[in-house]
Write a structure and sequence with these properties.
about 80 residues, 2 domains, membrane, transmembrane
């Protein structure tokens, strides 16, 4: 029984992720529309979106790409010595 549930979850992960991304996109579009209708300048709103996206992505890139960033340099150093 547990094996079937794990197998089903493995198959549904991609679909679940796509649905979550679509829902998040819809919510952000609704909030964007409400902010513009309320009087916020669209250029300022876009600047805020880019700023907060950058703040969110920098820590993720530092966490997930830490090993892969240093791998080519370590490979070069390994074979460049005597």
């Amino acid at each position: 029984m547990a094996r079937k549930i794990c197998e089903m979850w493995r198959e549904m992960k991609a679909i679940t992720a796509m649905v979550v991304v679509q829902i998040a996109t819809a919510v952000l579009n609704i909030l964007f529309k409400l902010a513009v209708v309320d009087g916020m300048e669209p250029r300022v709103l876009v600047a805020y979106r880019l700023f907060f996206a950058t703040l969110f992505m920098i820590p993720l890139s530092l966490i997930f790409q830490r090993f892969f960033f240093w791998t080519p340099y370590l490979y070069i150093l390994k074979f460049s010595g005597p």
